[in-house]
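Human: For the file, kindly provide a plain-text protein record giving the amino acid sequence and the backbone structure tokens, at your earliest convenience.
Assistant:
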Amino acid sequence: MTTVGYIVHDLRDMAVARRTSALRKSGIDVLLAGFVRRDASGETRSVPEGLSLGQTIDGKLGLRAVEVFRNVVSPNRLKEEFRNTDVIVARNLESLMIAARVAGDRPIVYECLDIHRLLLGNGLAGRFIKAVERYLLSRCELIIVSSPAFEREYFAVKPSSPPVMVIENKVPASIASESEAALPNNDGTFTIAWFGMLRCRRSFEVLSRLCKKYDGKLRVLIAGKPSTAEFEDFASMAAKVPNMTFVGPYSAEDLPTLYSQCHFAWTIDWFEEGLNSTWLLPNRLYEAAAFGVVPIALSGVETGQWLKRREAGLIVNDIPSLYKKLEALDGDQYGRLASKVVSIPRSDLVKTSSTGDRLAATIKGLVSGGGGNTGLQVARK
């Protein structure tokens, strides 16, 4: 059996558990190692499995750099843990630095979650980190991204970039159901969902204005983990906004219940506006549509383009145009929007076992030297 050593930025990340589970179901043995990320308040929780490489804190890049450097300089513990692995998979750039130190002649797969703003700048720090990235990419056999825009806008223009495989953030079949679109509440109000990693302060400000501006017509339901680097006390902030409810963190199994209460989903993200947020296809896009909820998106970003191609979603050019559409919104208009979302093919939204199987086959192919290209969207230069 092929064994993967998986180095991750946060052992408690639900996405890590999903990726690990998918690989194991497809016949890949996985050994986990990574950091344990805390929020700025110091909150800690138990780690489900894996070798801890140290603790980091959300938003504290300096501490993360120190922990990464420590593991690069002293990798013996991790080398011993991964001594019998065949492939090293690194989830984000800091993990890739460690992977390059321990891999030896084993293939390295880089799972790129996003593109940090430093990699898009021309300052001294940006030039340094780009030089580091250039070296690390030369060690990789494959890059995994969740949006084709990362390949198209970033990796495709890099000389000698390894092949790129696109695996979108689709909903696991175990939690997705054939959902009917929600009907408007009896009192005529519509509810907007904002779920997931809550790190965009501007989104909170816009949603707060919507709650006040359309009192009696709109509510906002928020669930997830706020970034303490962006919000000092998110729960208190949300409690002060009329028609806004924050229910805290959730598990994947909670998604059907959460989305059943909502009509629209906020997929707009201005975090690192004009850079990484322009290229993302976030989890909440697939989740919302899978549960029959209408995504709200900007037309000029990858999320809006994804929806346009499927003729679905409430797509706007800017926030003033969103105001106009919400002012005119009624039950009939919402029904038409919802029916278009429900018509999106399930294969565009929900993961199948074949995705995990083909990823596993690709990884096995790297070990055998065959490349493992089995039909997933792989872009080569």
In short: The two ends are 31 Å apart (CA to CA). Residues 372-381 have pLDDT under 50 and may be disordered. Residues 353-368 form the longest helix (16 residues). Residues 190-348 form a domain with the Rossmann fold fold (CATH 3.40.50.2000).
